[in-house]
Amino acid sequence: MKRVQPIVIFLIMIFIGVASAYDFPLPDEIEASPLNFNPLEPAEFQLQNGINVWMFKNKTLPLVNILIEINAGEFYENHNTTGISSLVASMLTSGGTASMSPMEVDEFLECNAIDMRSFSMMDMTRVEMSCLAPDIDKALAMMKEIVFEPAFDEERLTIVKENEIARLKRYRDNPFFEARYVFEQAIFGENNPIAQIPSDEQIRAFTREQLVEYHQKFFRPDRVKIAAVGDFKMENMEQLMLRHFNVAAVDDELKLIDPVPEPKYTKNTVVIVDKEATQASLFMGHLGPPPSNPDHYALEIFNLVFGASGFSSRLMNRVRTQEGLAYFVFGAFQKMKPRTVMNVGLQTKTDSAAEAVKLCLEIMNDMRTENISSIEMKMAKESTVNSFVFKFERPMNLIKQIFYYKNLSFDENYLEKYLANIRKVTREDVLNAAKTHIDPMKLVMVAVGPKDILTTEFESLGWDIVYSDKP
């Protein structure tokens, strides 16, 4: 041990001497070459019936992944059909097909190690499947039946309904979800499908015939996109797609009118939902511009600086770290269809709710009256650029991003030009975007918590105060 110590000291001295002989740059002074985004493009073709297909060969594993996306979801429901899209999506993989009972479908998937799931989102329904490459033919045959020939078995429908009721109950019991729901009602309008939650009675009242009618209306080839990624030959996969998904086209055109947001309040308003709690759950904001608006690159930088980058954002740094007023807080322009939503969300103690909100408003005002710092701009750009490529680590992720931006009406070459356009954003662009798209006189805040305490807290804001029942 005594011999080792002199040797270690000697080596440290050598290292210090060598290091001092060279002028090593600081980490933030090291300049890396610009990151470029040049992904492999998936092959794309269209079936005669109008279904668009994207294919991406990937031999990393002997698997094939299939994604089928149907343009059908909550966005296209009405007051009488609220909740039906989720039921239909769940029943696709659990309700049997025209040729197989639900039990037979379950056994087929299990015996062939095929993983298949289906779910609905705001404006789409997805069916995702993964199987071993040698089994792709029979897996696609089953997937075609599940998507285009579901049976909607009555017994399974009863089970799916109860599962959906239990899921919605968990949401309703969450005060933060409750605040979000009432907030969406306030900014989109109470009759907008985006702001609807079905009651237990509505879910139980749906009949098999209603699900069949919904399926026939929306599950049409001209509303379907398919992606295939995995270990296959391109020409073989194209033939399989033609064989299994060349279903009959629909002659008539389905004309749908996108629901128009109708904000419930036109000036600063606090909406209080009475709930016994020691914390207040808050959502605040207003409608923003369409997702593909000209300022959306500047708004992405705005989001990171303002409240979408965790502890490095202004909201988190000041509201939580410096003032200790909230465990978490966030704020951003959220991409939704047809309009983005500028929103701030947080949970705070009821007796500090007004203080927390006033600080959020102060930070929001700073964002629209003063340029962000050069350091904030640099960090936001670097974060955006460096994280961008990781969204496409897997080929299927790239295709999902293509589908996502198509649904939001972005340009075809949006992803290819994204990094270059982010790099062009200036501090002035961010400031102008904030000035243009944030209206401090038309904010709506929903607060879930004790009515009397929150009323006293928010009287100091000078906003209108109204009260709402729980969803």
Explained architecture:
The protein folds into two domains: about 45-245, Cytochrome Bc1 Complex, Chain A, domain 1 (2-Layer Sandwich), CATH 3.30.830; about 270-470, Metalloenzyme, LuxS/M16 peptidase-like (Cytochrome Bc1 Complex, Chain A, domain 1, 2-Layer Sandwich), CATH 3.30.830.10. About 45% of the residues lie in helices and about 15% in strands. It has helices at about 5-20, 85-95, 100-110, 135-150, 155-170, 175-190, 200-205, 210-220, 235-245, 295-305, 315-320, 355-370, 375-390, 395-405, 415-425, 425-435, 450-460; strands at about 45, 50-55, 65-70, 115-120, 125-130, 225-230, 270-275, 280-285, 330-335, 340-350, 445-450, 465-470. The strands form two sheets. It has a six-stranded mixed beta sheet, sandwiched between helices. Helix 2 crosses helix 8, helix 4 (about 135-150) packs parallel to helix 9 and helix 11 runs antiparallel to helix 12 (about 355-370). It is globular and about 65 Å long. The model has no long low-confidence stretch (mean pLDDT about 90).
Quick description:
With 471 residues, this protein is of the alpha+beta class.
